């Protein structure tokens, strides 16, 4: 359907649709009745879309979403992908959304490690990746996200934070930790192994629950966090 201009009732399209390539789509937005439940791949690269109105929680089978070179979407400030349990990959073009303020990818259980281009989101203030158990690492250049204020990465597979986290001078809340299993005191083997960066004196809330840390893993200067909770 690349470059095709169609109109009418999108609800009449087959609900069995699994793969849609609609590059250079001329529509300003996709109608809300678009059948998305069984869609696995959606390629809308180069489209004229100005708004992404679809509720991504309806994309129960989605594994790949490509919105690269959608120049009109650059003004996007909020992107909510939470609960897309079949989503496995974020396209590197996400780094082009330089006005994005909030990005929620929480509870995307099959989502793998984030592309390094996500650190190009210089306006991003809120990043939610909690309950993404397949995310094992954060990009080394995480510190480039100068506006980042809230980072929720608890209940993931992350074992170590990148050294560049020290550069997040606007960070207020940092939550990271291993995945809780059957009971509150159950600890998985995916906890943060060691806090190897200098503690952030500007952090107001630091959560390291279920990290399975020993006394040797806790820096001696933890007491300087006067304002932490």
From TrEMBL:
One of its GO terms (biological process) is defense response. It comes from the Eukaryota. SUPFAM superfamilies: L domain-like (SSF52058). InterPro entries: Disease_R_plants (IPR044974), Leu-rich_rpt (IPR001611), LRR_dom_sf (IPR032675). This is Disease resistance protein Roq1-like. The lineage of its organism: Eukaryota, Viridiplantae, Streptophyta, Embryophyta, Tracheophyta.
